[in-house]
Amino acid sequence: xxxxxxxxxxxxxxxxxxxxxxxxxxxxxxxxxxxxxxxxxxxxxxxxxxxxxxxxxxxxxxxxxxxxxxxxxxxxxxxxxxxxxxxxxxxxxxxxxxxxxxxxxxxxxxxxxxxxxxxxxxxxxxxxxxxxxxxxxxxxxxxxxxxxxxxxxxxxxxxxxxxxxxxxxxxxxxxxxxxxxxxxxxxxxxxxxxxxxxxxxxxxxxxxxxxxxxxxxxxxxxxxxxxxxxxxxxxxxxxxxxxxxxxxxxxxxxxxxxxxxxxxxxxxxxxxxxxxxxxxxxxxxxxxxxxxxxxxxxxxxxxxxxxxxxxxxxxxxxxxxxxxxxxxxxxxxxxxxx
Length: 338
What we know:
This protein starts with 14 loop residues before the first helix and ends with a helix. The strands form 2 sheets. Strands 1-2-3 form a 3-stranded mixed beta sheet. A 3-stranded mixed beta sheet has the order 4-5-6. It is built from 16 helices and 6 strands. Helix 13 links the parallel strand 4 and strand 5 (237-241). The protein has 338 residues and is mostly helical. The protein is globular and about 55 Å long.
């Protein structure tokens, strides 16, 4: 995709155009950051292709690393071009701020050398999350998970549970569902954030915990039946467990489930091989025989065969027989074809 013409005029109101105008007309970084805070990250990502490299750098510097990482999570093309414009340290910082699954998607859009360079500059914890997801094949649920989730130990008081939630929320914003884990990090159950916030004591909190919460194993093969079952639960995330220890490794969000489902629908359907009917050999033989007899009639029409058969009689007999056989053969062959 080439740089778009900066004079391009859009027929309909499009946020990317407004963002483009803001970046070009607002040199003050603080004012630009404040103005862009009213736009969705996806719209900012759409506007990047309208900007020059210098303008893109101005945008990144204005909104900061964390917000830039959120914008980059929505990129679906030209990823390599945008990262080529960044310093290696800056690129690594942006990837570190992303959810691990989004980071994996971005790195896959880069050249191998560029991806290795960025990973080499990342903090160990962020690098481990990426390596964990990359350890699973594309057709396994582990490849879809993110490590952006909240997990609280069981047995804590209500106040301790809330404190753990607040502390983890500084790093993880996927807080709609809170997972409760045992001492060995295995899944105990899940609780809705609303139920946690409205619980008055530990007993009331425990009553709202769903201990039969759905889950998948990281090495489990993705298939349509399992996807449909998970979507039917209508939860905002599904925990992914280790196939060896039952430890909670990550979660799959409802958005990721929806995206993989749409991809399944877009896959071409395997159609059966076309059935080619065999020709009616009997009809073909009759046609050939009739044709041969017509040829013989033509060739022998002027030749005597015996004293009792005149040339004219032989010619007429062969001609009639050949015609009859040809008609029968043609009818049989045509009927089979239809």
